[in-house]
Every structure is written in C-alpha cells, then in structure tokens.
Write a structure and sequence with these properties.
The protein folds into 2 domains: 117 residues, 2-Layer Sandwich (Uridine Diphospho-n-acetylenolpyruvylglucosamine Reductase, domain 3), CATH 3.30.465; 223 residues, Alpha-Beta Plaits, CATH 3.30.70.2520. 26% of the residues lie in helices and 24% in strands. It has 14 helices and 21 strands.
Length: 464
C-alpha cells in the first residue's frame, strides 16, 4: 500500500503493530492522534487513496480497525461530554467511551439506550458498528437512537448528518450509511443521541435454567413480551444445548432495601483482576471448558425472581477481568456471531452441533433475540436470533467448517456481524448483505470510499 505522504505539521505519528480483540492477524500501521477537527481535515485531504481508518478502543474482534501499512486514526482528545437532562440527550466527542459516559449519566438517573457487553467502546466505534445489546427486541440497535452526527468525509469536509428526510435525501442516506458502515464513509467526530431515564442503578433480574435448547429458545420467545433485557448462556459442549436465561429491567425504588434507597444511583465499576500476559496454547481445551461449563450451569439458580444486580454485573461481567482476551493464548481466538430469521431457528442447534463435532471448546456462548432492524444497509441485526460463540483460533478444521456454515446462513437469509468477523469471504458478505451494492453506489457518489479503508473492508470487497 502506498502511504508515502506528508503528515500535517504538529501531528505525531507512531509505528505500531495492531490487531483486534481476538489477537489474530497482527499488522504494521502508522497511528496518529489529531488534536482538532482542523488537523484531522488536513490529514484526510493529504492522504492517498484508501489509506486511512479510524480506531476506538480496539474492541472489534477481527480486522475492522486496522489497515496493514496504512494510517490508523485515534481520537482520544475528542472527549467532550454535554448532557441535556431535560431533553434526555447527550452530545459527545467520538473518542468518549461508554465507561466515561456511564460515570456521568448514571448518578443523574440516566442510562444508555443500548449497550454491548463491554463499556470499553467509544461512541464513534459504537456508531460505526451499530452495536446492539440485550434489549434489541424492544429498543433496536444504538444507531436508532442517534439524532445527529458530525463526520469528516473523504474530501476532508466537515458534514453534519441527521436521520430525517426522504429515502432520496442525500444527507439522511449518508447518515444511515455511516451507521454500521465500519468507518467507510468518514471519520465520526461528534454525535448526539438519546438516553433513557432510570429509577435506580440496579437491575431486577429473573434467572432460569433450561435442560435443552428447545426449552431455552421457547422461554426466550416468551421473554420478548415481558422483559426489556434478555440474554441466554448456552453450554456449547452439552449435546442437549442446556442453558441459563437471564432477563431483567431497571429496578424501581420500591424494589430497593432501605440502605439502597439512600443512594439509588450509586455507581462504581471496577475491574477486579487482570488476565496474565501469557497463557499457553491448549489451556482452554475440551476438558477444561467442559468443567467450567458444568460449574457455571450448576451454580446458576433453577428459578430466581427479582434478584438485584449492579449494572456492571448484569451488562458487563467480562469487564471485571481486564484483558480477558489473553486467556486464549498467543494464537488468539475468533468470535463467530450470526443472525438468522425466526424461520431459520433450526440453525442455532445445528451450528452448535457442528462446532462440537470439530472439538471447538467455548465457555462464552451467548444467544439473544433481535427485533426490527433500521435503515442502515450494513447494520447487523435482523428480526430473529443471534448466536455468538468464542472459539480458539487454533482449533483444527475450524476455518473450513465456518466457510460452509457461512453458506448455510446466507441460504437462510442470515448474516455475520462485521464487528466480530475476522475471516468471512467477499462472496459470503455479498450474499448476506444484499443491500451492499446500494451502499457501495452511494458511498462512491459521495466520495466516501476515496480515502477510507481497513483490512476488513478490503477483505469483504466493499470497494468493488
């Protein structure tokens, strides 16, 4: 890749080896951190074709926020936060993390409209991936709550985008192309989005154990009607597909004990431990994961109603161990996350069985329900089911198996999540995201793809 160009005066550059959260496919990049919108604009105007991509906190699992031999833009100084309590709106810089926002809004009685399973993501990254959470069946994905964006486009111009207007409105079309667009339309610098009001910082949680996948999935369909949040853990190594369903909503003040009522918005998240820097390959194997899954299933209550949990415990359990991705060892891991419509629900147990057959051990297998999607052509959620399963990258025969499963998912009208993907082909992508041609045409018309690229975008052929 040709990256020889003159960086703007005063812009510091650093050569780094970057990789995604799965710790696979490391590449050499130039990392820059502009101090202002003007410096960012100057950088974009000077850059060669397809040589830039933005990066948040590196929580995309694959190669979405890296560019081999290219320039990666980080925006930690774009960190402004302005809360409008009366309107339940917040405006932030794109480099602000969900962790920073929560520390501001929870004590004031607000919560994020949608959050993924980690608070260590930036606003810019959340929009670019159009992240979803445990409440998609009720509230949709994060992009559905964004009211305004500011981006620096491929020409280096600062644009303000909104979701309003007709389908032919170029501004609205570019807005929705940016939501879930994985950084291909420009560099997000600021966003305004809505918040939800809460009565306390605790979650009232109902937990139930299910002995097989059919019982679990039937209970999840029923949960759609009763709960704002729901998520299931599945024992991926158990042939019956047993699992634990956890559902809940923000607790009312009346649910709290006297001590909790004295400070209903208490919020103090902490990382409890850090994973060691080195784990030998093979530590996570079929036997160790089977033992973990057995213990996890047995410790979960058979049927518990109204348990009060903290935001950290309910939404971000893995954030309690910083750098937990190290437990997979030097070879790293990949997450296979797919969505399929309700009529293709049979693919959930089918894919779990296929992964068992190749001996892919996973202690982190999560099943959720999706509701209606939004107008973004590259947004992942579609009505139905989504399964996410973490697998060591070193499993023999894994990649060949996944190539075949990609075809089954595409045949059923499903798709893979770009923010988690590290290996799907351009052919699979184009079959799954049938609106991709619309997105590409629009992006070319507006000059978006002139400058921005990533290893992911290159791999799936978004520029073709």
């Amino acid at each position: 890749m040709n990256t020889s160009f003159t960086f703007p005066a005063g812009l510091k550059t650093e050569k780094k080896i970057l990789f995604g959260w799965g710790r696979t496919n490391p590449v050499n990049c130039h990392v820059v951190k502009p101090d202002s919108v003007e410096q960012l604009q100057e950088l974009v105007r000077a850059a060669p074709s397809r040589s830039l991509i933005a990066r948040g906190l590196g929580r995309s699992y694959g190669d979405a926020a890296q560019l081999d031999g290219g320039t990666v833009i980080e925006l930690p100084t774009f960190d402004g936060i302005v809360l409008d309590s009366e309107a339940k709106l917040i405006t932030t810089g794109s480099g602000v993390s969900f962790d920073q926002i929560l520390r501001v809004i929870v004590p004031k009685g607000f919560f994020l409209p949608v959050t993924p399973g980690t608070r260590n993501v930036t606003v810019g990254g959340a929009i670019a991936a159009d992240v979803h959470g445990k409440n998609h069946h009720v509230d949709g994905s994060f992009g559905s709550h964004v009211l305004r964006l500011k981006i620096v486009n491929g020409n280096g111009d600062l644009q303000e985008l909104t979701p309003n207007g007709h389908s032919t409105d170029v501004n609205a079309e570019l807005f929705w192309a940016t939501i879930g667009g994985m950084g291909s339309t420009g560099i997000i610098v600021e966003a305004t989005f809505s918040l939800i009001s809460i009565s306390s910082s605790l979650i009232s949680v109902d937990t139930s154990r299910h002995q097989n996948i059919d019982s679990l999935m039937a209970a999840m369909v029923e949960a759609d009607k009763k709960y704002r949040y729901s998520v299931a853990w599945v024992d991926s190594l158990d042939k019956s597909g047993r699992g634990v369903l956890t559902c809940g909503d923000h607790a009312a003040v009346s649910d709290l004990c006297k001590r909790e009522k004295n400070n209903p918005f208490f919020y103090d998240p902490k990382a409890l431990a850090s994973a060691p820097r080195f784990f030998p390959n093979g530590l996570l194997n079929k036997l160790t994961v089977m033992a973990f899954n057995e213990a996890w299933y047995r410790k979960s209550p058979k049927d518990l109603k109204g348990e009060l949990q903290t935001i950290s415990r309910f939404f971000y359990p893995l954030d309690g161990i910083s750098l937990w991705n190290r437990i997979y060892g030097p070879a790293g891991f990949l997450q296979y996350q797919f969505a399929v419509p309700d009529e293709a629900a049979y693919l959930v147990p089918r894919i779990l069985e296929a992964l068992r057959q190749v001996g892919a051990p996973s202690f982190l297998t999560v099943l959720k329900r999706f509701g209606k999607g939004n107008p973004s052509p590259l947004s992942f959620p579609i009505p139905g089911w989504t399964l996410a399963i973490d697998v060591p990258a070193s499993v023999s025969g894994l990649y060949a198996l996944l190539d075949g499963l990609d075809e089954e998912i595409a045949d059923a009208g499903g798709r893979l999540y770009l923010a988690k993907d590290s290996r799907q082909s351009a052919k699979a992508f184009q079959r799954c995201y049938r609106t991709q041609n619309i997105f590409s045409d629009h992006a070319k018309i507006n000059g978006c793809n002139k400058t921005f690229n990533s290893d992911l975008l290159d791999r799936i052929g978004i520029h073709d």
